[in-house]
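Predict structure. Chain length: 359.
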Amino acid sequence: MSVQSSKPRVLVVEDELIVARDIEQQLLDLGYVCVACVNTGELAVTHAEQFKPDLVLMDIQLAGDIDGIAAAQKIRSQLALPVVFLTAFAADDVLARAKLTEPFGYILKPFSERELRTVLSMALYKHQAEAKLISTTRQLQALSQRVLEVQEQERRRVAIELHDELGQSLTAIKINLQLGEKFKDQAPPDLYSENIRIVEDALRQVRSLATALRPSMLDDLGLAPALKWMAEQSANRGGFEVKFHQERSMGRLASDIETACFRIVQEALTNISRHSQAKRVDISLRRDGSDMLLHVRDDGIGFDTAAMRERASTGASLGVLGMQERATLLGGQLDISSTPGNGSMVLLKCPWRTQAERV
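Prediction complete.
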């Protein structure tokens, strides 16, 4: 099992038995695992579905109802596996048909072991790069869609708060002013004090709304005080203890770094409050050479990281995608690790930049 998991797995499709055995031996010598050798296009498709190899080495001229090109087309469309054609034919019409399947390589018989090694190595690398690009594109599409949805939700929330809270306060002040104007000297003596109280409540509502959108402390005092303030707020709401650790004399970091760090910690603390059942959270911010390191650790119940990444890749977890995107924009890296029953950790590593430095 360890050999199969560490070595690339290849399905060989070749209708000449002697050639197939020779290819299988060359693959073994090159460090590959041959999962099977089949001699028809139909068997190529069924074995590809069964074994899910890392690569299919496909002869074009095969016995059976479908040739290697038709089999490759099915394998590519149904399983998205890389196919390398292996043939003694180099006719233009054959090449034209083969190109339509978007192969990852083309080897003409007879070939040397060196040629085989080079083509297979490049095909696997190209496939990995393509898979990573497809995954990244899907994540960005999911993130863009969810960002628009959340943006509308946030706008709706702000509109409701303005209407229900601030709007009511202003309406009450208007009514009181109209009463004062109507009755003049006969107005209740506490009317003006009531107006002052309502205005003070409205100011608190405005400050609360502004802080929720972006705390002024982050701009005025910097990242460390803002993180400490947010940690205290989260601890009070979540019922857990938070310890914040920071290197002394850090100075002000670049604005984009401070904003990204604040939002990443905010999302991490939100997830901890909702899901972790943690009793203690540790947040640390320090410099490591030319890098900045930000840790958020908790002692909660933990979670399955593989399932979390799967949800993130499909757009079901906007928070994780958002944190990863912020880290990428900084030229950094975000690692999320957890073990069920042993808490979790979020680690951001990015280049250290101060406000005086430009990107």
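Summary: Residues 113-183 form the longest helix (71 residues).
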